[in-house]
Amino acid sequence: MADIRTHAELALAWVLRLAGRLDGSAERTGGSRAVILAYHRVLPRAAIHEFPILEDLVTPLESFVWQMDYLSSHCQVVSPERLVSMLRGGQELPRRCVSITFDDGYADNYLHAFPILKRHGLPATIFLTTGFVGGQGGLFWWDEVCRWRAAGVKSVEVEGLGLRGVATLAQRDRLLEEMKRLPMDEIVRRVRDVSTRLGLGPDSRAAGDFLTWEQVREMQEQGISFGAHTVNHCLLPVESAQRRSLEIRQSRADVERGTGRPCSLFCYPSGAVDAPSENEARAAGFEAAMATLPRDVLPDADYFRLPRKVLNYRVSPTVFRFKLSPHPERIKRLFEPAQRSSV
User: Fold this and answer.
1) Which pLDDT belongs to residue 150?
2) pLDDT score recorded for residue 7
3) Residue 25 pLDDT more than 50?
4) How far is CA 65 from CA 117, 226, 305, 324, in A?
């Protein structure tokens, strides 16, 4: 299904490009919409195959450079905090208003993305999974699963799920989706059990895979802000009420302690949000929270389910311009006339 959507998006983008409709000719004034972009990892293209990562989270550095050049020249980039402030204050949004976010807190945000953002003076917000800052938590569990396949493993026995293939990307992705239905402690326990049986010890590279608090504070002095993304990257709807509250509130406290500044924004891991999770984010004192539904941010947006558009290695320059344009939202509304953009 993801491949079908990707090909359909590419086809629509090219039709509009050939018609000369991708660079804002239909947007003469501001006030109506904004786009929040969601990145995860930024790595040089040559390095992508050298680490057993989940490739869906990676934007090649070469693509990121072009994208930031484009935003700097064609859009009004505002920080997510500023965007939320304008929405809450009923202010008119700038024409071609864009905000930039990163999820998880990978070290490559500092090594590769930060110099490009700094060169253009572009603000951004990074949502930190605070239990992994400095590599203290090891690899994320999905990167550990990717290690199995990178080690040449064809199939694994996973407690409660049986014998599962991981030889192909499709098999691996099905396993990842099934494991997401479990509480985080169960996921981590079962993944570590498989890695132990496979003879895969802790990956020494994990210590350098995540931002440190020193890097966070350096970036903060150069216009990058930081939000909370839970402590352990729990998918909140599958956790207990007590665990949801702890993950949300503790991650905010961690960010404030580590940065010395208020933390006003939260991001739901994997975009997974339900009413109890949203209510907990409100109760924790956040001003807004981000999801990952690929829609535009409109003036009537739900501040605690702000939609974002995820980018990765599949996003060509033409598709990037398409995502920024008003056309995807217009097309979606033709088929979903009753839906609000942020739900």
Assistant:
1) 86
2) 57
3) no
4) 9, 22, 29, 16
